[in-house]
Design brief:
By secondary structure, the protein is an alpha/beta fold. The protein has two helices and eight strands. It has helices spanning 14-22, 69-78, and strands at residues 8-11, 27-32, 35-40, 43-49, 61-66, 90-96, 102-107, 113-118. It has a four-stranded mixed beta sheet, covered by helices on one side. The radius of gyration is 14 Å and the shape is globular.
Length: 121
Amino acid sequence: MADSAAPNLPSRRFDDTIAFYGGFGFEVTYRHEDWLILRRGGIQLEFFPHPDLMPGESSFMCSVRVDDVDALYQQIKDAGVEEKSFGAPRLHPVRLQPWGQRAGFLIDPDGTQLHLIENTP
């Protein structure tokens, strides 16, 4: 097995987290009352229970790097996540960012910000 790293993100309810991320291709690879692992291809997200989390006050975030950020963005949008400025969940469109890469943003139902970043050659 290759070395790897995965973000540890909060979930108010594992069932809701599974349903949300499952809408755009993530599958459960491990579930226990104290830990949840979801995988989509080479992307792994790990979750811990945080039932009292206030989504609007969350400062959790991670980067998700993919070869085709437009395709991932569209899959998330097709799953019903809307582009909007406030609230959770929400999407912010893919565009060229000040740091020189194309990226969009997903805020999940628990307020975690995922930077959706296109891999550079």
